């Protein structure tokens, strides 16, 4: 096997009340990495499409090749020669897990090319290194679901403890990306380091409610639990029309609506594809009223995560 | 029907990571309220056993009769005459939900005597008033499970949103009450009003893990999630030998161990009755080494909650 093409999906992290602990993958869009052996030693990026020239071409600074280098080092493979093409199919800094999708596609492609020495779970720390390269901290709430699929819970970071929970088949995600940009580091910087005990308890109640609602397929409970009293009130000020767009989603059939990742994308969850479409159209219309273009993605919860497209 | 005897079980609130949001009922012990109609108007407490004379005999200040008066007022029943006997079968200020059990037994007895005008769920706010009478705040994490049974989650207090989640049949509770006393108000007073965002995230992860672990019957996940980084580190200083007793429980088969309610009782959860007994004996032995007597209760999770013993 000398050539691999791998796909890793976009993801919604935080999921209302679940800051840093919840994330899920959607079906589309996703990044694609092409990986080929070559005769000369070392790793080179021969092309990146869709990034408007913004991602680093230096293999150590690019998260795709950065995670590959980590993996090769871990496996003690030294006499290698590879060339990499990255197709970015989602915007950078969008809140759709863009850097995670690239890193996951990279690490999955390399693992496949090497004959799958590591399991998906074992690849997780390497993919997280891609997040560290891209944003300075090794978060798992995008990488986890992009790699593993499903609705992911990160119980703990030290030690890393991550698992998936079942979700109802009829749960659909609406993802709307407005044409504005937020830097992930800024979005984290504006958060307060202290939370009131009262808000902590409220958030814990909603976390418990969302997990139980998803596992019981109790759509009312899911809806009541999609409340974030800690992060959303702060970060939403970075998204123009946030309140109006959220209201539009919920008035048009969504169970709940919040910020995807650190924004500016907004997501909604709905019962059934029709509600997800209606919510998405209402959200786009509200952004458009304020003169903001947006892209709409409707998807079920992606249960498989990253996949190999071709050898 | 002129006479009722009702039983309401002891409860474990907080349940490690779930401060103010989790609680479950055990089989025994529980308080018993006897309620009889009488010819003279008004409500009187004719006897209280097991309280060493410490509970108020004034019907408005006693939580059992206090909740009855609230219920009668709500139902607009004015020409009543009742006499009440309360059998306290657990110590006051023990962290076993003592005041909740009395209030729940009272409200269930009165509702039964009146022909059950309200459902169990509808009785909840009245039972919570009993907590307000006893401790100054209307918490639901003892009252909820004592009234409804099972493992209870309080998603929200305003509005009140409470539900139960399924737990594995083979889950057993060890409850050890050391012969020392903590005032619930003091135990609340020493808590900080602010929590670091880092600890909030850690606690949320454990809340999600405990709900998922219980619903999936994943004992390892239950065990890993029984971690409280917010409340236990503060309140445990009020309980002599806390660390040693906790270690004894976990080293002898318990999945996890923490403070029951606001203490000083400590509880453990175990897979199977044998582990629950072994953990309990080790906990008692460790308290005894420090010269502290204790009472031990082993129980499955009580799925039915309060019940009518006889008419």
Q: How does this model look, in words?
A:
The structure is a homodimer of 311-residue chains. Chain A has 311 residues and is an alpha+beta fold. The first copy, chain A, folds into 2 domains: 3-165 and 302-310, Ribosomal Protein S5, domain 2 (2-Layer Sandwich); 171-300, Alpha-Beta Plaits (2-Layer Sandwich). Chain A is built from 10 helices and 12 strands. In chain A, strands 1, 2, 3, 4, 5, 6 and 12 form a 7-stranded mixed sheet that branches. Chain A has a 4-stranded antiparallel sheet with strand order 9-10-7-11, with helices on both faces. In chain A, helix 1 (63-74) crosses helix 3, helix 6 packs antiparallel against helix 7 and helix 9 (242-251) runs antiparallel to helix 10. Chain A binds chain B through residues 17-22, 153-156, 161, 163, 165, 191-198, 200-209, 211-212, 215-216, 221, 224-225, 230, and chain B through 17-22, 153-156, 161, 163, 165, 191-198, 200-209, 211-212, 215-216, 221, 224-225, 230. Strand 8 (194-196) of chain A pairs antiparallel with strand 8 (194-196) of chain B. Chains A, B: Belongs to the GHMP kinase family. Homoserine kinase subfamily. Chains A, B: Pathway: Amino-acid biosynthesis; L-threonine biosynthesis; L-threonine from L-aspartate: step 4/5. Chains A, B: One of its GO terms (molecular function) is homoserine kinase activity.
């Amino acid at each position: 096997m000398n050539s691999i093409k791998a796909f890793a999906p976009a993801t919604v992290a935080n999921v209302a009340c679940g800051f840093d602990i919840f994330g899920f993958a959607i079906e589309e869009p996703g990044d694609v990495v092409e990986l080929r052996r070559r005769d000369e030693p070392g790793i080179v990026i021969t092309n990146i499409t869709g990034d408007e020239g913004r991602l680093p071409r230096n293999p150590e600074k690019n998260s795709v090749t950065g995670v590959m280098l980590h993996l090769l080092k871990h496996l003690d493979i030294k006499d290698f020669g590879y060339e990499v093409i990255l197709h970015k199919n989602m915007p950078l800094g969008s809140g759709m897990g863009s850097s995670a999708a690239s890193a996951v596609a990279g690490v999955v492609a390399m693992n496949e090319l090497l004959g799958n020495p590591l399991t998906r779970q074992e690849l997780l720390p390497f993919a997280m290194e891609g997040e560290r390269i891209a944003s300075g901290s090794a978060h798992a709430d995008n990488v986890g679901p992009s790699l593993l699929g499903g609705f992911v819970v990160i119980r703990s970071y030290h030690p890393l403890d991550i698992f998936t929970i079942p979700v109802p088949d009829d749960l659909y995600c609406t993802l709307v990306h407005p044409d504005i940009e937020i830097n992930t580091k800024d979005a984290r910087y504006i958060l307060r380091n202290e939370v009131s005990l009262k808000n902590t308890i409220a958030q814990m109640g909603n976390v418990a409610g969302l997990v139980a609602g998803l596992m019981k397929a109790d759509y009312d409970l899911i809806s009541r639990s999609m409340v974030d009293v800690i992060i959303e009130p702060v970060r939403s000020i970075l998204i123009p029309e946030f309140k109006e767009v959220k209201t539009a989603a919920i008035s048009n059939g969504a169970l709940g609506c919040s910020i995807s990742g650190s924004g500016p994308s907004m997501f909604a969850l709905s019962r059934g594809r029709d509600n997800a479409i209606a919510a998405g159209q209402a959200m786009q219309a509200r952004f458009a009223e304020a003169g903001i273009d947006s892209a709409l993605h409707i998807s079920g919860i992606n249960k498989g995560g990253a996949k190999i497209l071709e050898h």
